[in-house]
Design goal:
It is a single chain. The protein folds into two domains: about 110 residues, Ribosomal protein L10, N-terminal RNA-binding domain (Alpha-Beta Plaits); about 45 residues. It is about 55% helix and about 15% strand. The protein has five helices and five strands; from the N terminus they run βαβαβαββαα. It is elongated. The model has no long low-confidence stretch (mean pLDDT about 85).
Length: about 150
């Protein structure tokens, strides 16, 4: 995923702050000339839609892994500095709307999702183990009741 930010007015210290926030999510922020970015994406159909965002002063945030966490970091940075704004984002060859970018930020992190899946799997495994354990216990109770009836 690539997020395009207007970085006009940001200081070097603020850009460093953004980059450090992105490090935890394996996102990187690069500032480059629009002409160089046009050359870099030229001929690649996955990046063609990015062309419409290449005006003005741009910083490009490239995200490989924790997309939700990186977008949250960007939004947190923008809220704190009140200087930068998101021009747009490109995900899998498609430009995203502002609402779609916000929805991505609201997603739980990868670790939380893995924990939820693990919890659900653990719950199923526990229920299966209890059910399997209940068969011999039920059989033992039935045999005991049967033996008590025959004794009386």
């Amino acid at each position: 995923m690539a997020v395009v930010l207007d970085y006009k007015g940001l200081t070097i210290k603020e850009m460093s702050d953004l980059r450090s926030r992105l490090q935890t999510t394996n996102g990187i922020c690069k500032v480059t000339k629009n002409s160089l970015m046009r050359k870099a994406i030229d001929g690649d159909s996955n990046w063609n839609d990015l062309e419409s965002l290449l005006t003005g002063t741009n910083a490009f945030v490239l995200i490989k892994e924790d997309i939700g966490g990186a977008v949250k970091a960007i939004q947190s940075f923008q809220k704190d500095t009140k200087k930068s704004e998101t021009k747009g984002a490109l995900f899998e060859g498609r430009l995203l709307s502002d609402s779609e970018i916000t929805e991505i930020a609201s997603l739980p992190s990868k670790e939380v999702l893995i924990a939820k899946i693990a919890g659900a799997l653990n719950g199923v495994a526990t229920k299966i183990a209890i059910s399997i354990n209940e068969v011999p216990s039920g059989l033992a109770r039935s045999l005991k009741q049967h033996s008590e009836k025959s004794e009386s």
